[in-house]
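User: Could you walk me through two proteins back to back? I'd like the raw sequence and the structure tokens for each, with a short line separating them so I can tell where one ends and the next begins.

Assistant: Of course. Protein one, sequence then structure:
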Amino acid sequence: MPLKITEVKTILTAPAGIRLVVVKVLTDQPGLYGLGCATFTQRARVVQTAVDEYLRPFLLGKNPLDIEDIWQSAFVSSYWRNGPVLNNALSGVDMALWDILGKVAGVPVYQLLGGKCRTAVDTYRHASGSDFQEVEDQVRGFLQAGYRHVRAQVAIPGMGTYGSGETTGAGDVPENRRTEIWEPRPYVRAIPRLFEHLRNQLGDEVELIHDVHERVPPTLAMGLAKDLEQLRLFYLEDPFSPEDASYFSQLRQQTSTPLAMGELFNNPHEWMPLVSGRLIDFIRVHISQIGGLTPARKMTAMCELFGVRTAWHGPGDVSPVGHAANIHLDLAVPNFGIQEAHAFNQAEQDVFPGCPELRDGYYHVNDRPGLGIDLDETLAAKFPITGAPPFDMFWGNYRRADGTIVKP
């Protein structure tokens, strides 16, 4: 008799103070279940509703090993598709089905994807500070810990700056009206000076990354990429917003700075032209945001043919289950580039037994069948998510000095 899905449910938890969404798919075989990441931290409860109220009744009774058919049918089941809420909901189910398949086959998921191309996954960490020296000190700390790649961000005086922890909003203003000021020109003047300082102090051995985070007009982003060319970045991340992606054809003609893009992508039509046109060097999507492992492995295969390497999104708002899925794919694909790393705190490790391990700058997963990670639901319940943390508010309140909204 074929296996059947008997239950689908979401677990919301925040062991590191960041809202995580995990989907658990149970089967009629006692003890056989799978876990998947559906973390859209800014809209966690909306994803929960999509899973519990819509995908669950659609999936009950189906064979969990029919991964491709379930993905295709669930993808169109809402008629409208390719949005972040439904893609994340679908990802939670999809990763859980791959986890189940690995457990049934008795092998890790990376084996199902073709087997290892490498023994461990090279990673990068985030260095930031209020000034150049503080950033340099953080980079040195990561180098001493065994990392070879570091992303560097610095505060811009008087501005709320992504990646540095600086804020400008008045504390007595309600969060939904607490404006953070952002001006692009001081930023594009400061960043080349930061990387010139780092190269002078640290030399060429460290691979440096910078995240523009889509916050500047396209012409300024192109100028920044050219100014950074002589400083030999590993890559420049998200220089344009998804709405401005057509500028990549111009940028590619003007600079040899390696380019990474994709954190906000949901739809294949956003990334396919950039890959087929050889306009980027690294694809950097949030895997749950595009619908899970099933579409991510297809994306990876297309990227390989066009010389584009992977650099999956991997901060704290990817659950440990999502990180495990990232790493299994990283291990199995020939065009792996780099993996953004998150150091799990003790609470995360306790809630998610089998968390990937960071050692000497590399991620390692265990060789247990499936994704190799579990979830302690009783302990997860001791870290409930909050209703509306500040990061729900500030993305919509970054503004120019004249009040104009800035795209994150």
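----
Protein two, same layout:
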Amino acid sequence: MDTARIVSLALWPITVLMIIHRSLILGVNGDRTDDFTPVYNAGLAFLRGQAVYGENYNTVDPHYLYPPSGTLLMAPLAYIDPERARWLFIVVSVIALIAAAYFLVKLFGFSASSVAFPAVLFFFFCTETVSHTLIFTNFNSFVLLGEVLFMTLALKRKDLWAGVPLGITFAVKPVLAVLLLLPLLSRQWKVFVGAVGVPLVLTALAWPLTADPMDFVKRTVPYLGEARDYYNSSIAGNGAYFGVQPWLLYVLRIAFVLMAVFSLWFLYTQYRRTDELLWMATSSGVLLATSFLVLSLGQGYYSMLLFPLLMTVVRPGSVMRNWPAWLGVAGCMTFDSFLSTRWAAFGRAIEYNKVTWGWSLLMIAVFCVLLFRWLDLREQRATVEA
């Protein structure tokens, strides 16, 4: 029996048990943060013709922030009681995660019977990002599935269909909007039909059915643009929590944007034609990690959207083949808590900074790898010309 077969036999029971634990035990138990109840209440208000966007945004409780199109998609959950609706949402989220792992493995050339599938599933469910998505009962699982389906269909040049999963995620939360740069660069214009058309159609359907649609524009959208100082691992949010000077936060945000611009330029010029999968998966990671850091809101469980970037480690030329990058991954994805009863201030600093530091280190590692490759290429060209 070969090594891969032995590892697969060992991983499957451990992975299945972990999936059950994360969903049936931790997910059903829940936690002090509850992302599902605001969604359920908004869906119920929508069905009853009541106001949806009348929350007090001055509290630190989870708020309902989905647009009317997202309300329309979530509203059917309110036809059943809150507890069973939440259980159903957890079950469907687990199915979405398993499907995302399956399509990600297939995208990188592995079969479902290979050791890659249980290995990817094991990694998924041992991370903080997946665990807290299930515990808090958030929509992120479906966003990840939409991202992987978009990449799969776009690489197969099924452009009209490729935009549909993106469009569905945009209708609820537009966290993947930065990925539209990829079909723009590759001139896959048909992707935009589904990506833009689906949320527009859903918005047109939901707008007249929502009691207070303009409140989303007048109240919720401005709130989304604010860098809140709680449950926010972006540079602005983290800096606001720790009282960092605003000028330094601007410098850091500009620095990461410049690193991203160089990285995207080099990836496009060097890899788009030679390894399109590596280009797309790496560029998506750069775009998303940068958006988490420099925009107003970056929450730790967004990190699951970086899974395609991490999966590139199996391909030659990957920017993930170095230990600093994986130290960054550990920072933004570890399920461990660093809060300490003995060294309270130190533990608190590590715990509340680990996601921001993890994203930052990952971006710096990717930038440095690509910078060194560019310098090597420049030196080789100078040698040839001499």
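The CA atoms of residues 34 and 46 lie 20 Å apart.

Let me know if you want the two compared in more detail.
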